[in-house]
Amino acid sequence: MTQRDVSLWPAPRATAPVRATVAVPGSKSLTNRYIALAAVAAEPSTIINPLISRDTELMLAAITALGAEVDDSTDGQVTITPLPATASGTDAAATVDCGLAGTVMRFIPPLAAATGRSVRIDGDAQAYVRPMDTMIGALRDLGVEITAGATSLPFDLHSPGGVAGGRIEIDASASSQFVSGLLLAGCLFDDGLTLVHNGDAVPSRPHIEMTLETMRLAGIDASATGEDEWTVAPGRPRGFTVTVEPDLSNAATFLAAAIVTGGQVCVPHWPAETTQAGDAFRGLAAEFGAQVAFADDTLCVTGPEAVAPIDVDLSAVGELTPVTAAVAACAPGESRLRGIGHLRGHETDRLAALSTELTKLGAKVTEHADALTIHTPARIGGRFATYHDHRMVMAAAVLGLCVDGVEVIDVGTVAKTMPAFTQLWSGMLAGER
Ligand SMILES: O=C(O)C1=C[C@@H](OP(=O)(O)O)[C@@H](O)[C@H](O)C1
Ligand SMILES: C=C(OP(=O)(O)O)C(=O)O
For this structure, is 319 an active site residue? Predict the structure, then answer.
């Protein structure tokens, strides 16, 4: 008898329009920024409603390895006692496991360097192919010693004297996280940091604004000083208490269920103003023909009778691509998702992954260098591979609503940002309000 693959998840098919209210856990991007800042603050900080998932647990483990203390004994919050301001010369080199988390691999190395720690930066095999050369080059320019020849994970970093800082130029066209990581650490450089981007367009711009905003919350003077220039004044962040907003990119997956089934899904605690890229899903939902209403801190999306195809530039909000592609692949007509070449350096090459898996489900898809055209919708079931990418699981769940027999390989990979995803999905389908 063959052994059943327990991680194969039959994505539920919608038998009726989905009607539910879904409260989603905290934002990954905000949680990991708050953790990083709290680790180097002058006083302890408390983060309320943090996301607890693989990426945030890796970030907590990373700051612990650097010498911070984490107290998660109270449900729904985490208190962080910062690491000592300067490393003692006798500290043994710590190892930081980045898993597949872009935020950990781009935020921790500059932070470790700034605080004079020696660390080995490692991660999943798949993290070894994520772009890291810009960060390694920037750190070398700042005088940090890094394993000779290394351009990606794993590498050793040695910076006993901290970082003097000043003005540096980088090419952040592969990821906004290079900018965010250097800015977060820049306040700890002796002279602060002026960071200039020099290259093709920087993707995911809202995430840079998020970085500046979280730094200002911790009392740091950080701002954009030009179209492609940011400046951070030197200073230690002060301790803070903050409540994390729900993760709007993860919320988008549930709102997508309303769009493809012609139902209604509401997400409470939606922030009226936010730097989260996921907020852009409101506009995408409207383009698909859905109605979007925001009242009393709750966002409700009501699906159309027929989903309209779309033609959109997702360069600023690339992390919404897998779910947007899934909705587009439930729509008759041709959709085009543009400005997403940098997604080839995400958890997996998302253009290749989406194109391959949607094609398996009978959709006709063209993969361009930096775009996807979905010519005709998915129409048959099949095994949907997820490539260690949480958002591929979420995309598959949306497709499962509109196509019979979608089976998701390695559903557990969704724990990168949403360990309770399948339970929340079932609850939504059961119409929980
Ligand atoms: O800083 C962050 O929290 C993120 C920035 C973006 O990365 P890229 O700029 O690499 O797209 C985004 O896609 C990722 O999910 C999270
Ligand atoms: C690109 C993503 O993650 P990471 O933070 O690992 O880059 C994502 O969550 O879509």
Answer: yes
Q: Whose CA is nearest to atom 16 of ligand 1?
A: 29
User: Is 227 assigned a ligand-binding role in the annotation?
Assistant: no
Residue spans in the chain of domains classed CATH 3.65.10.10: 8-26+246-430, 28-233
291 is in an annotated binding site: no
Measure the CA–CA gap between 259 and 430, rounded to whole angstroms.
Answer: 17
* Residue 318 CA, ligand 2 centroid: distance in Å: 9
Contact criterion met (CB below 8 Å) for 334 and 375: yes
CA-nearest of 87, 235, 92, 109 to 181 is: 109
The answer to whether the annotation marks 176 as part of a ligand binding site is: yes
CA 135 from centre of chain = 18
Judge: domain 28-233, CATH 3.40.50.150: no
Q: What is the mean pLDDT of the chain?
A: 96
353-378, pLDDT tens digit by residue?
Answer: 999 999 999 999 999 999 999 999 99
Q: Which runs of consecutive H residues, i.e. helices, occur in 218-267?
A: 248-261
Q: What's the pLDDT tens digit per position in 209-245?
A: 999 999 999 999 999 999 999 999 999 999 999 999 9
Sequence-ordered list of residues with C-beta below 8 angstroms from that of 306, at least 6 positions apart, any chain: 289, 331, 332
Ligand 2 nearest atom to the CA of residue 319, by list position: 10
Contact 32 CB / ligand 2 (< 6 Å): no
Q: What percent of the chain has pLDDT over 70?
A: 97
Contact residues of ligand 1, CB 6 A cut-off: 29, 102-103, 175-177, 180, 203-204, 207, 318-319, 342
Closest ligand 1 atom, residue 319 Cα = 13
The predicted pLDDT at position 2 comes to 46
* Domain 8-26+246-430 top-level CATH class: alpha beta
pTM for this structure? 0.97
Give the ligand at the shortest distance from the Cα of 107.
1
- 13 Cα: distance to centroid of ligand 2 (angstroms): 27
Segment 129-139 mean pLDDT: 98
What type of residue is 432?
Answer: E
Q: What pLDDT sits at residue 6?
A: 54
